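User: Can you write out an input/output pair for a complex, sequences first and structure second?

Assistant: Here is one pair. Inputs:
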Amino acid sequence: MKCKHSRIRKLLTLALSASASMASAQQAHFSDGSARSMTMPADRRVLPESELPPLPEVPTGFFDSGLSETANQSSYTLDYLLQLAAANNPTIRQARRQISGETAKALQAGLYPNPILMYVGEKINSDGSAGEFQGFEIQQRFVTANKLQLSRLKYRQRAQVAEHLAIAQQYRVSNDIQKHFYQTLAASERLDMRRELLKTAEDTSVTARELYNQGQTTLPGIRRANIDLQQHRLDLLNAENEFAEAFRKLTAVIGCDISLGYIDGNLRPQRALPTFDAVYAELIDNSPEVLAARAKLAADHTAVRRESVQWVPDIVVQGGPGYNFSNYDPVYNASVRLELPIYDRNQGTILQARNDLARQREEIRRIELLLRERLAMAYRTYATSLQHATEYEGVIIPERQRAYEELLQSYKENRVDWPEILDAQTALFTARLQQIDQFRDVRIQETLIDGFLLEGGLMAAESSTPPGHIDSVPKPR
Amino acid sequence: MTPDEDRRQFLKLGSLVAAGGLLAGKSAAQQPPSAAGPPVPMAGSHAGHESAPQPQIPADSDVKAEYDGFSRFKPSRGNDPDSEFYLGKRVPGFRSVEAGPAPFEAPDLTKLPWKMVNGAKEFHLVPMAVEREFLPGYKMNVYGYNDTMPGPTIEVNQGDRVRIIVTNELPESTTVHWHGFELPVQYDGSETLTQNPIEPGKSFVYEFDIHEEGTFFYHAHVPMQEAFGSVGWFIVHPRKVFDPPVDRDFGLIFQNFFIEPNQTIADSWRMDWNWHTINGRSGPYTTPLVVKHGERVRVRLMNFAPMQHHPIHLHGHTFWVTGHEGARAPKTAWIPRNNVLVGIAQATDFEFVANNPGDWMFHCHMVHHMMNHMTRQVGPRIRKNVSVDQYLANTATRPPVDASRDDPGFATPGYPQEMKSMNMSDSMMETIWNRREVQGMRAMWPMSIMGLMTALRVLPEDLYHKVMETDEPVDKGSVFEEIVRRFGNPDDYEPGKMKMMPGMKM
């Protein structure tokens, strides 16, 4: 799609630094309470800290050691990753091999039959002689009805099909790179937001202890805050793991190992797509899948033509010099053969070829409808995500932000409780988290729709010949 | 110029000598007073008292400074609990009975004008939605009458015939109930039971004879309108002036509302109440009751809270409960109190002789009624070196939290468990201070008068004149310090801090 490359160029100009630091929020300021210094003598304390349920330990079980690789702090742009993929993704090379394979078939199919050189001994022992004919003959088949040219044409046309499929494969890889790029970028931003939410959960935990000291919550209240805190810590670990997964998927599609690092990009969409009908019209005009199917239709036309002339008999001429041991004189043999198409006029194969042709017409239609079906889903997801993202951007986040600020101001003026601020803060950061997901979904769908709905950058490159095709005959024709 | 303004202007011009520059400054307070008049003996004299002007009986009054051991000029009980003058029970004010009832004064409220039409005092009362500034800058949307909440005071004399034309400007129907009056039933204002509701834009005429005397009020007989503030005084002065005569007759309507922070409309469905008003204002915006030393004072206090009773406490004085809204009680039924529970829709009349100079709290004793928008003390405001400004500076992220509870106070259960009132801006403080009634009070006094609270100021004649009858500047704390100097022990007195907001971390 023509807008794709310009969009990528735009992407390159944008730089949104996404923090990929794996430092957990609690490491900076939130202690477990064991290192406090009370100025009041211990024996005067009437509410020892030990009576409170302890703060839960920071999760210490399994930890993905690969996450420490971000210490390298490498930074990757989309353009750089696309270049890497172009050079390293195996399916792109596979697709190129498919073209070469079809071209080789075309070469082979058009080759003229070789002459056959024979030694012939006939009627050996006739009258006790060595034979009536002992000699060399040469046989040459003369192909008629442009069979070889048609065969070569057919495979050249299939090579064109393979070219379209290779372009499709490039889109699959490119789309997957972009998709994983935005997923990784979103995961990075989610990680930042999870750190903010963890800080709020930490504050909730501290606030619960303050409330407990004032008789305004109970021990179960502190325990609930502990649970909430631990769940947010797990959410942060989950966000870290999601980031690692997204990044590793990205590197898998690229086809080479790169260390975990920052993703340099902008998650926010820069434009809106045209209408569904406009997108669909462009899709059926330019989709590599449709173009490949149409090219395949041309090849199938040629196949029909090719099979239609198959019945035209080739002329096989055979002859050569020999010696007649009965008569003791040099003699010559000569024959011309012609297959009489009385019973086998290749009618079955012609019929099969015509059916293949008809099937291909339906295949084009099927692909168009499949694209419509996939586009419907993608467009719906895109529209929903964009609608949500737009409203979150224009209304929900600003409103949450204003509500948070108003409550902060009210708290400053001693008019609301701190737990209310924490709720507003959680709501704001959660909304931002949701907005990240919406932007991510918009970007992914935008990428797919721009990239002809092609995905699967690690699926084997498609062949131009569907299974069970007429090409099951041994000699390509 | 209104009669009040005339009087004020006259007093300004005629009292310069009496004022004598007494309050020009702290140093001036040490100078001998120039006020003239017979000195009144003071008990428990301290050094410096001799130089102060002594309380005196006005020349045009024939009352005494002391009745049976009770002094109108110093805290005292009297000699005998059975005496008519015990605790000042029947000690008259300076005003004579012949002068008629003392003018009724409801601080911060207006009076409803009337004119005689066909032998009746005709009033026009308009129920309507109004805006009322509970505190400076806190304008609340409530219901009231004639642009005010509570509504304007209807003031009549026993024996009058009244005609009240009620024109409903509310968007909903209403009626008006004349609380406590024994009137013809069709004017009782009970919706549907006695009359059809007054639809929006429509009028209804109530007309009846007043044979009662005492403290009454009117209110909408629609519960949610009551919770929204639809109430007003209806004072009936007796044909025979109550004896002993009072010099001051104040009216205070106590109300409660639930109004969320960042909201101006009351939620009348709530069972709890977080805004408290006296005559439509909340402390410290309530206007103090300023009286002269030795005057007999009546306070009519009416509780129009939707759901809660109010234990009313007056500092520094013992008052007589002389009646409720039903009728003035016979003197044999009067009881002395420091604190009296005033139930919902009850009015209680207090009478006392203001014999103890100073600024005295007069408030509902319910702890939660002593502030508005009560908040729990958790979060940054109790954490060291944490300010809400940090949060406001960048809302994209938030500051980390320090989990260490290293304030020694945390070793004490319940710490810190205090009530924080709303933060008072400089402009709010300026509005609160910009009233004559509060001049000379201790610096930062507004931090102590919150919610359902006001002050009774008992001022010596010269100080009263200075504060209430002149426009002269009065330094913060100067009046209070002068009272301490005259009546207390100045050696033990520490002036209020001039600029000290509580050390809130917000």
